[in-house]
Amino acid sequence: MKSVVIEQPGELVVAERPLPQPAAGEVRVKVAYASICGSDVHIWHGHNPFAKYPRVIGHEFFGVIDAVGDGVDPARLGDRVAVDPVVSCGSCYPCSVGRPNVCTTLQVIGVHRDGGFSEFALAPAKNAFSLPDSIPDRLASLVEPFTIAANITAFLKPQPDDVALIYGAGPMGLTAIQVLKGVYKVKKVMVVDRLPERLALAEQSGADQLFDNSEIPLAAQLEGVQPTLIIDAACHPTILAEAAALASPAARIGLLGFSGEPCSITQQSLTSKELSLFTSRLNSNRFPQVIEWMEKGLIQPEKLVTHYFPLQEIERAMTLFEKDPRTCCKVILQMG
Ligand code: NAI
Ligand code: MN
Ligand code: ZN
């Protein structure tokens, strides 16, 4: 089979690899579509501290089960599945409280073990979620990025009368906008980005008000409006302090970033308004919820997609994705 392998940081190849056999409890998925995420680019460049090399990347993928290991119901052969990349132990403290995404021995498919930029991929059978026919193959790899928005909004508990502010209109910001508008029916969702092209995508995804902070700081444009719910999907370390300053008293702030840089913030700026901070990593069992949202048409994954490429053009696809955020948002690889 052909697989996209990062042999070592900086070295991306499409390699011929032996077809893997599913172990007990696993399924093999014949991958049909897989989408590129910023973290795939980070593994390529050696900027992901968790990745081990060589690695088949890709954690957002969809396909059909074509082999099952011992103990897996053969009736699952032929199932169309989206794969949850979060592999957890099931028994540690975070697993025991329903937080497998921060399992003490967390393994992420495509990061800690081989992933979905490949003609075939292995996964635990319980990570392979069967999809209804109403979710088309070409959009099914986008279940995973929407689980990020599902996870953070589960903490933030959006309400219809919230005044929401989202930093960043990349894939993460757009999924958050769609979930706030389509699922939680939040009346006002404001979005700030530095790129007008990204703000145009935010508008298409349902944002009510757009701010370009490339020249004028956001604070000067908000005219005193104090957001009650803020999601940082741009993830620059300076944003938290700004968000705390702009937030309404009693607001909730959701953070998604992984920067190793310190961010400077006073206790007073948080405590005087009694702000709640939530962080969110990947997803905790959110695949069924997102699949239901897609099935009901509450979210529109097609609005994120700008490009499709065949697997063989992976390097071109990853380079475009990385270098050209003005024309590119979600890029999907087509296998076979
Ligand atoms: P992206 O880079 O495509 O989007 C970020 C957007 O923020 C861009 O449109 C950029 O122009 C904008 N931006 C950057 N600095 C800004 C600022 N100071 N003010 C306003 N806008 C600004 O990235 P993507 O894929 O949307 O991911 C966003 C972040 O989410 C990344 O940092 C990524 O590491 C993180 N992430 C976290 C996950 C989690 O589970 N916690 C999962 C996936 C991504
Ligand atoms: Mn991703
Ligand atoms: Zn665990």
UniProtKB/TrEMBL annotation:
EC number: 1.1.1.380
Ranges where the Alcohol dehydrogenase-like N-terminal domain occurs: 24-133
Keywords noted in UniProt: Metal-binding, Oxidoreductase, Zinc
Cofactor list: Zn(2+)
Keyword Membrane listed: no
Domain of life according to the entry: Bacteria
Keyword Metal-binding recorded: yes
Pfam families on file: ADH_N (PF08240), ADH_zinc_N (PF00107)
SUPFAM superfamilies on file: GroES-like (SSF50129), NAD(P)-binding Rossmann-fold domains (SSF51735)
Enzyme superclass (EC): oxidoreductase
InterPro entries in the record: ADH-like_C, ADH-like_N, ADH_Zn_CS, GroES-like_sf, NAD(P)-bd_dom_sf, Zn_alcohol_dh
Signal peptide (from-to): none
Positions of the Alcohol dehydrogenase-like C-terminal domain: 171-295
GO molecular function: oxidoreductase activity
Protein family (similarity comment): Belongs to the zinc-containing alcohol dehydrogenase family.
Protein's name in the database: L-gulonate 5-dehydrogenase
Lineage: Bacteria, Pseudomonadati, Pseudomonadota, Gammaproteobacteria, Enterobacterales
